[in-house]
Amino acid sequence: MDENYVFGCFSEHFEVQNVKLIRDKNSGQLQGYGFVEFTSRATAERVLQTYNGQMMPNVELTFRLNWASAGEKRNDTPDYTIFVGDLAADVTDYLLQETFRVHYPSVKGAKVVTDKLTMRTKGYGFVKFGDPT
Question: Which CDD domains does the protein's record reference (predicted)?
Fold first, then answer.
C-alpha cells in the first residue's frame, strides 16, 4: 500500500487534492495512518459517510476514517497546519510551539507525535496556525 493506492481508492468518484501516508522516520515502514485532503469540506464529509467501515479494495482491511482536526465544534475561521519532521528526541509540544511563535504570532498550538507504548517521540509533529502567512 502506498499514496497511489489510497489516491486511487477515492479519486474515481471524488476530487483528491493530496495524500500523505505517515512512515517511520528510520525504517520507512508505514505507521498505519495518513491524511487525505479533498477539494472541499463537503467532499470530505461525503467520503467519510460513504467509505468509513467499508472494505478497502484488494486488501483485507476496512477504511477507518476520521476528521484530522480535533474538537466537536468548528468555527468559520480556518486553521493551517504544517508537518515538521526530523525533530530531536527532547522537543516537546511547548518547545515546538514557542519556536514557531517567535516568528509567526498566529500559532495556535503544536503537537509532537509520540509512540503510545513507549511515550517516546516519533521525531515529527504538527504546528497549527490561524493565518496562512
Answer: RRM1_SECp43_like
